[in-house]
Amino acid sequence: MTTDKPYRPNVGIALFNAAGLVLIGHRFRDDGPEIILPGLEWQMPQGGIDADEDPRDAVMRELWEETGITHADHLSESQWLTYEFPPYDGPSSHRLARFRGQRQKWFALRFTGRDDEIDPLAIRNGQPAEFDAWRWERLDRVADLVVPFRRAVYGHVATAFAAFAKAA
């Protein structure tokens, strides 16, 4: 992977329910270098930080855009973490093609709403849906469900936020 490209600023969301499980979404399509692989289509919500946007604002915007959730409380946040995109042979005009990977700040949030608030298929802020299904999962299992290039970051998130993976 070329190192002359920058990392894309990004937030990741570990949304815990009252039972200590995290929300994961089932990705149903590739998005340029953000590929999915058979059997590894699940991930926690994440998304880009807009220019001059505070990461705490970005995390709530991304949570809403990807899931419809507006009821969540801040618990903690990680240090900045990075991962590299896999090799990408698609068009150079793709919005992610100019990045080498993502530089992420992960947030632990406590879901304070109801499950019927969760709707990953709606289009919000003109952003197409990324997930076609969702479920609650144990935090320590999520790294086994994601594409390999994200696993180290997910392992770090699982360790950093382990205290929240208990019933509230």
Could you walk me through the main structural features you see in this protein, from its secondary elements to its overall organization?
By secondary structure, this protein is of the alpha+beta class. It has a single domain, classed as Nucleoside Triphosphate Pyrophosphohydrolase (Alpha-Beta Complex). It contains three helices and seven strands; from the N terminus they run ββββαβββαα. It has helices at residues 55-67, 139-142, 151-160; strands at 7-16, 22-27, 42-43, 46-48, 72-84, 101-111, 131-137. The strands form two sheets. Strands 4-1-6-5 form a four-stranded mixed sheet. A three-stranded antiparallel sheet has the order 3-2-7. The protein is globular.
Helix content: 10-25%
Summed up, the helix count is 3
Strand content: 25-35%
Which overall shape is indicated by the principal axes computed on the Cα atoms? globular
- Low-confidence blocks of residues: none
Structural class: alpha+beta
The string of secondary-structure elements, in order, is EEEEHEEEHH
Total beta-strand segments: 7
Any guess at the CATH architecture? Alpha-Beta Complex
CATH fold-level name: Nucleoside Triphosphate Pyrophosphohydrolase
Rounded radius of gyration (Å): 15 Å
Q: How many domains would you count in the coordinates?
A: 1
CATH homologous superfamily grouping: Nucleoside Triphosphate Pyrophosphohydrolase
Supply the key terms.
168 residues; alpha+beta; Nucleoside Triphosphate Pyrophosphohydrolase; four-stranded mixed β-sheet; three-stranded antiparallel β-sheet; 16% helix; globular
